[in-house]
Amino acid sequence: MPTAEKPPRHEAPSPYGTPPPPGATDTYHHGHLRAACVEAGVRLVEDEGPDAVTIRGVARIAGVSHTAPLHHFRDRHELLDAVADRGFDLLVERLDASLAPDATPTEALRAYGRAYVDHAVTHRGLFTLMFRPTGEIQGEASYRRLIDLCAAAQAAGELPGDDPFRLALLLWSSVHGLAALYATSNLGSGHVTGQPTDPGVGTDAVLDDLLGALGAAATTPKETSR
Q1: Cβ 69 vs Cβ 37: under 8 Å
Q2: Are 149 and 105 in contact (CB under 8 A)?
Q3: Rounded CA gap, 211 and 159, in Å?
Q4: Which CATH superfamily is domain 82-217 in?
Q5: What is the pTM of this model?
Q6: pLDDT band at 116 (very low <50, low <70, confident <90, very high)
Q7: How many whole angstroms separate alpha carbon 199 and alpha carbon 186?
Q8: Cα separation of 207 and 202, whole Å?
Q9: Which of 13, 19, 137, 198 is the most buried (most CB within 10 A)?
Q10: For residue 1, what are the CA distances in angstroms to 4, 8, 167?
Q11: Residue 26's closest CA among 34, 17, 38?
Q12: Average pLDDT over residues 8-24
């Protein structure tokens, strides 16, 4: 009497889809696979959040074997760093595109703040990954732009002080806090009474008040002691 065949055993389905079949190979040029994996990581973090960015996940999207990314990333942490670096690259691109060539230093700082918040709202998952706790130093280029703009504004007498790092900390913490509120909290949902839901409106209001107060302090004559 024939017996029914046992159904094949299957592993639990991956939340990142079906992996490439056995024997799948790296079909990318050596230098292109790394970039493809990073872009796959960007897609995953944007769609599902930082926890979704795994070696197998990017391999699936790139269409290569699950071990192929390991030629470029020693482990998941190194992959996360690379995806975060790409996020900072996109931020710098947005910052540079926002700066008018004839803008004053203060106008450039205002454009910087708007672009920063816009980046956070446009790339919420990526923004979260970029500023996750890590021992690596990332985002140096965007930070350096802020320092240079602060130094230029102080040299022009538009903003007070002679320490661009101190001024940068004030501006960065204010704008980053606003970006986080719009990107990761309910500030843009209309659930916070009295606050603008449009990130652009909120950013302009904060920058008007902050840069306006700093500009006034820079142009107010200091009292001399008698």
Answers
A1: yes
A2: yes
A3: 8
A4: Tetracycline Repressor, domain 2 (1.10.357.10)
A5: 0.81
A6: very high
A7: 12
A8: 9
A9: 19
A10: 10, 21, 86
A11: 34
A12: 39
